[in-house]
Design brief:
heterotrimer, A mainly alpha (225), B alpha/beta (281), C mainly alpha (293), A: 225 residues, mainly alpha, globular, C: 293 residues, 11 helices, 75% helix
């Protein structure tokens, strides 16, 4: 057991989790924004936007994240010379955030759309009756209610996002949890179960509060009907 | 399914027992006489072009050529060889469990591994090196400051460069060498690192031919051995060493290297190669 | 709110013209972006025929893509069956009136729902590699299957539980009233209804399993993505290989999603009266209907 605790001096486990948390934070922020835009596109009156939103969701929702990650670093960075930061490490961090965003935006979009489905017809009809066009109606009437109805599914997307940050190792983000755990197990196979449980527990500690919080918030925010 | 698996293991174990028993009776060169109908199971890598690669339904690479030569010397012509994929983390275990008779899979001889298994050879001394574009002016790990270096899997080899040679190098880890090479072709990374023979094999594939070179300035020693089970199994360490020595003397060894690194500016480390085989334990 | 056209008035002539202009602009924008990407990649030689010609050869499909697809489907199929078994066991366990059982099941389910699948795969791969009871050639396969099963089984367990919770109370009360034990009522009255209602969600969970099986490439399981990488090691065409792989995954998952939606519509009339399970919208997991209501 002494050898096991000594591992934590050699490997920065907390730092690894911090990388994943940062990845999750930025990716959640951006994919929420992109997902909202996509959701508005899908309910908008313009056919090409509807079509684009639907195509986006169907393509990225059905592609393994690993492949999107490799594309983010390999196609964008090495082939198209897209650089998101002059600093090497930051660049790959941001590319990973971009890949995570592209993937999870499709799920946020669908979560928000399911929230739109909880808004009664009468709300939209009333909005039209008082003369609001599509965008004002969406902004003032529909979307605020839709978000309140979409808290629970969005919470689930957020939890998936946190866990999916482990795939960022594919996109050249070093020092995050999955690669750190892999290295530790490779060099100290005797402690592999303890090492795995440590990392697993770390995720339990991060994920369970998010679940509890969103469940609580979804009840609290649910529109009484 | 499980039953058949156990049965297969039991049969294999029984076969190994009878063979080793017979070997005890008839002396040292038992393999060449008794191997006639049996198959030999050789572990190789399936995903390293030029070293051990499953190309469609064929097997190619330097490890494969050495394996074929050695097996032939032991009395197993090519049609009696069964190649099995032995990924790095599973190699010792596959030998201990009698899943393979011997392993030639860029398998470095180390003391830790010797605790669990035995080695014949070495048949090649590889070393960590750099693969760079043909027009690059990098001449060794010291030139990598401010450059980007690509590696695969756990980054110990790349980390060694950062620690010992170029503190300002940018390390990029990728899922496989296919990604590294594509990124280097795109011009966004400057070098790929791992053992020189693996790099040379990678560069000699049809798609990469003529684009990259291996520097030839190795800065570590990886002695590739033939992994064997600790308790004598189907094949004997001494017989393998004899076969390796013969392969070198006949010139087939150098031919195999040339063939598998064709079209690449690469010369193996002649000070260390061809290596003398170690004494068997 | 289902009909989308209630969000805006039927467009008049002027609005129709504006929409047409917006349509054209939108299409142009997409085309420009696509052109930028394609021309950039073409400049790096990604569209040279040597990059793509391997996919026109039968050998590529015979030795790489089809065996890869087969392994992907094999791992996914075994994981689906195992996940359902795991899900039923722990889902029902969580409903057990005997507290210790329901607690243990609850802890197991919550734990495996929280741990990233990739971490489980890496661990089980290393763990099984060192064990002596598994055929080493099968270690990557079992590591993939176990990791997928533990996670997706836990999600299905939650589905089972929330499916039963989502039923009207009267169903159970009626069962007890006619003299069934709680267990009998669960088995013959509640579970059948809950299972029918959760079928579409279950199907979309299969999409998750299929997609996540691609993580097997990290531990050398020879699934589709791994074979694509091997092909690319020899041919030097990783980007085209990944594009083809992505296309195969998209088609497969699209078909599964389509089937789930069809099923959901057909069952809608029946199950919709009892409870409502949202179409699966999360990458990993289904919204618990009990929590939503």
């Amino acid at each position: 057991m002494e050898g096991f605790t000594a591992l934590f001096e050699q490997y920065d486990v907390v730092g690894a989790f911090w990388v994943n948390i940062q990845l999750a934070f930025w990716a959640a922020l951006w994919s929420l924004i992109l997902g909202t835009v996509l959701a508005v596109m899908r309910i908008s009156p313009i056919p090409s936007l509807q079509w684009f939103g639907a195509a986006y969701v169907n393509i990225f929702r059905n592609t393994p994240l690993t492949i999107i990650m490799v594309f983010g670093s390999l196609a964008l960075w090495s082939q198209l010379n897209v650089s998101l930061s002059p600093d090497f490490t930051t660049n790959f961090f941001r590319l990973a955030v971009l890949s995570l965003t592209v993937y999870h935006a499709a799920f946020f979009c669908e979560a928000i759309r399911s929230g739109v489905n909880t808004v009664p017809l009468g709300q939209a009809e009333a909005a039209r009756a008082i003369g609001l066009g599509f965008l004002p109606a969406a902004r003032i009437i529909i979307m605020p209610q839709a978000f309140r109805g979409a808290v629970a599914p969005m919470g689930n997307v957020l939890i998936a996002l946190v866990k999916n940050t482990t795939v960022a190792a594919t996109a050249g983000v070093a020092a995050e949890t999955s690669s750190t755990m892999k290295t530790m197990i490779e060099f100290y196979p005797n402690y592999m179960t303890q090492i795995f449980l440590t990392f697993a527990l770390g995720y339990v500690i991060i994920v369970i509060p998010i679940g509890l919080l969103t469940t609580w918030a979804s009840k609290k925010l649910a529109v009484a009907r | 399914m499980r039953k058949t698996r156990y049965a297969a293991v039991a049969i294999a174990a029984a076969a190994a027992l009878t063979l080793s028993a017979c070997g005890g009776d008839s002396g040292s060169d038992s393999g060449s006489t008794e191997g006639s109908g049996e198959k030999i199971r050789i572990g190789i890598k399936f995903d390293q072009p030029g070293v051990g690669f499953k190309d469609g339904n064929e097997y190619t690479g330097f490890d494969v050529d050495v394996a074929k030569y050695v097996a032939n010397e032991l009395g197993y012509p090519e049609d009696q060889i069964e190649f099995i994929s032995t990924p790095s983390p599973q190699r010792e275990n596959m030998l201990e469990n009698d899943q393979v008779d011997m392993i030639l899979a860029s398998y470095s001889i180390t003391d830790t591994r010797k605790e669990k298994i035995a080695f014949a050879g070495p048949y090649f001394v590889a070393g960590q090196d750099l693969l760079i574009p043909n027009d690059s002016d990098i001449s060794g790990p010291d030139d990598l400051d401010g450059k980007t270096l690509c590696s695969v899997g756990s980054s110990t080899s790349a980390q060694k460069i950062k620690d010992n040679y170029a503190a300002g190098v940018n390390l990029l880890e990728q899922p496989s060498y296919a990604e590294c090479v594509t990124a280097m072709q795109g011009g966004s990374i400057d070098a790929v690192t791992t053992d020189d023979i693996i790099l040379a094999g990678l560069a000699s594939t049809d798609a990469n031919k003529g684009k990259f070179k291996v520097i030839g300035n190795t800065f570590s020693e990886e002695r590739y051995g033939v992994g064997l089970p600790k308790e004598a199994g189907l094949v004997k360490c001494e017989d393998i060493n004899t076969a390796i020595t013969k392969m070198v003397e006949e010139g087939a060894w150098e031919e195999a290297i040339k063939k598998n690194t064709e079209g690449v500016d690469y010369t193996f480390n002649a000070e260390l190669n061809p290596p003398e085989t170690d004494a068997c334990a | 709110m289902s009909a989308q056209n209630v969000l805006f008035d039927a467009p008049g002539p002027r609005a129709r013209r504006n929409i047409m202009i917006a349509n054209i602009l939108g299409v142009l924008l997409v085309l420009v972006l696509l052109w930028l990407a394609v021309s950039g990649l073409a400049e790096k030689g990604q569209f040279e025929s040597a990059m793509w010609s391997p996919f026109l050869e039968w050998g590529t499909w015979q030795y790489y893509l089809l065996p890869g697809l087969l392994s992907t489907l094999k791992a996914a199929a075994v994981a689906v069956v195992a996940s359902i078994a795991f899900g039923l066991l722990f889902g029902i366990g969580r409903l057990s009136p005997f507290k210790p059982i329901s607690w243990v099941c609850g802890i197991v389910v919550e734990f495996f729902r929280a741990v990233p699948v990739l971490l489980m795969m890496v661990f089980f791969y290393q763990f099984l590699s060192k064990s002596t009871s598994v055929d080493p050639a099968q270690v990557p396969f079992w590591a993939v299957v176990i990791a997928l099963t533990l996670y997706n089984g836990s999600v299905i367990a939650e589905l089972v539980r929330s499916g039963v919770f989502g039923l009207p109370k009267g169903q159970r009360e009626a069962g007890l009233a006619i003299g069934l034990t709680p267990g009998q009522s669960l088995r013959s009255i509640e579970m059948p209804q809950a299972l029918v209602a959760m079928l579409p969600a279950l199907l979309s969970q299969f999409v998750v399993i299929l997609k996540d099986s691609a993580l097997g490439t990290f531990i050398g399981y020879t699934e589709l993505l791994e074979y694509a990488r091997r092909l690319a090691s020899g041919e030097g065409n990783i980007l085209p290989a990944l594009l083809v792989t992505a296309a195969i995954f998209i088609v497969l998952n699209f078909l599964l999603t389509f089937a789930a939606q069809r099923l959901s519509r057909r069952l809608g009339a029946r199950a919709g009266k009892l409870l409502k399970i949202e179409d699966s919208i999360e990458p990993e997991g289904i919204e618990a209907p009990a929590a939503a209501k």
